[in-house]
Each structure stands twice: as C-alpha cells, then as structure tokens.
Give the backbone structure.
Amino acid sequence: MRILRFPRTMQREAQRWQRQGLRVGFVPTMGYLHEGHLSLVREARRQVGNRGIVVLSIYVNPTQFAPTEDLSKYPRDFAQDCRLCREAGVDVIFAPTDADMYAGRDAGEYTTYVVEEGLTRGLEGGSRPTHFRGVTTVVAKLFHCVLPEVSVFGAKDWQQAAVVRRMVKDLQFPIRIVVAPTTRESDGLAMSSRNRYLQPAERAQATVLWRAQQWARREVRKARPMGRSKPSDGSPAGVPAEALRRGVEALVGACPDARLDYVEFIEPETLRPVEWVRRGCRIVLAVFVGRTRLIDNGAL
C-alpha cells in the first residue's frame, strides 16, 4: 500500500493507470475509519476486480464545515486508518493537506467552488446552508486527482450520494457512482465517526434514529397498498406524513438527551417531500444526542 500526499502526484499515478488500462475504484472519506468505510472498500474492490486499483482518500474537508461546527474536533487517527486500509486491501491512500487542496484560500486567492442548486435546498442543506458547496467542490477536486472509473458512497448520507450523482450527471464526469448499504451496529445505530463523541447514556439513546425508522416502516406497511380503490373521502393510499412526523417527534422527545433537528419523508431520487407516505418512500432524519448531531435514513 502506498500513501500519496500531493494532488499532482496522485493525478500522475492515475493517468499512468489509465494508460495501462487498469480500472480504478475510489472511496472518499474523512478518515477515522470504521467497518462502514471498510464495507465501501470491499465494494470498490468488487467493482474493479483483483487487478484493479482501489484508492481511499483521507481528508477532513474544511469547506463543508460551518464556523460553529466540529472541524477542529473531528476525530483523526491516521496510523489506525493506515492499518485498517492495509488489512482491507487498499492499494493507495490519498491524504492531501489543506494547503495543497485549497492553495491561497486564507488569503482570498481561492475563489472557485462547485454548487448544485436543486437537491441541496432542504434536509442537510437546510440545516447546514454552506455544507454541500464544500462537499461538491471537494468531491469534484478528488475526482480530478484520482480519475476513478467508479466511486463508492454510503447510503447513510443519502442526500450527499444523490447530490454527487447529480453533479456527475450534470457535469458529465465519466464516473459511475455506487451507493452501498448502511453498515449498522448490532442495535441498529448507523456506524459513524461521530459516534465516539457519545457518552454511555447518550449512546443508548442514539438508537432512537433506528427505532424511528422501524416504527415508521411498520406504520407504512400497515397502510392500504397502492393500487386499491381510494376510500370514500378521496384520500390517496399511504400514511399522512404529518402523522408519521408527530410519531417520530414523540419517540425522540422521550429521550432526555435527544433533540430532533428534522425528519422528512421523501421520494428517494428527487428528494422531494411527500404528503402521503407509501412503500418506496424514504425517511431521513437528523437528531442531536447531547452535543452530537447524527443523521440516518431508510427505505419504507
């Protein structure tokens, strides 16, 4: 396994792989790796085969954090990350610095950003208005450095994956985006680098994100299936989103250290909120547990 630090060095290697006809799979991360990240590495390997190259980036991107967020406290353990990557069969770690990725930014000499203006308006984009500008910019830059054929993202960040897919489509990147399933702890909590912030009592309450999904899924399954005749009042098949929202608010409210940031019920591709929730829709939610903000989502 090799560790590359400079964008130009990474790009030269990627161009050499292209000339050799090698397939490249890419997993962008901010480090502090866990089993969820490693599942993405395995998917990337499956996509490119044993002869292909798997690149994993480790870069805590400053432009996707607001001034009030946890950039300086974001967990880092590069030595541990390297060990896990080596064991997982990563071929190259790309670990650039801020000075290389955003040269001149502090002096106002970096002024180019990539902005998606449709899918980023609500959900995380509503709660963190500057977040996705940073995400799309850094992902575009990483794509230009690594030149992958395929890039693997996790379903836990559903909106992020949708935004990256739209960027790739709209800007005609020759890259296929694969979204791999969310990896969960045995009690259902989605694996996240931020879980380490949770105190023991908070960790127990954090399962409310999973329990909310399970409850909403049961409610939707009990509803009248699509295709059956409408009731006499003309209402469509499904469950009113407002009723599900109240139920989730009650579940979160029962946890003394938890506070709901948002919960929405959406069409999975367009991310548009729905008034009537049917099978195939998706629940997306963000919850503060203590000071730690966690996100999750799931199909209904």
Summary: The chain has a mean pLDDT of 95. The longest strand covers residues 258-266. The CA atoms of residues 8 and 145 lie 7 Å apart. The chain has ten helices and eleven strands.
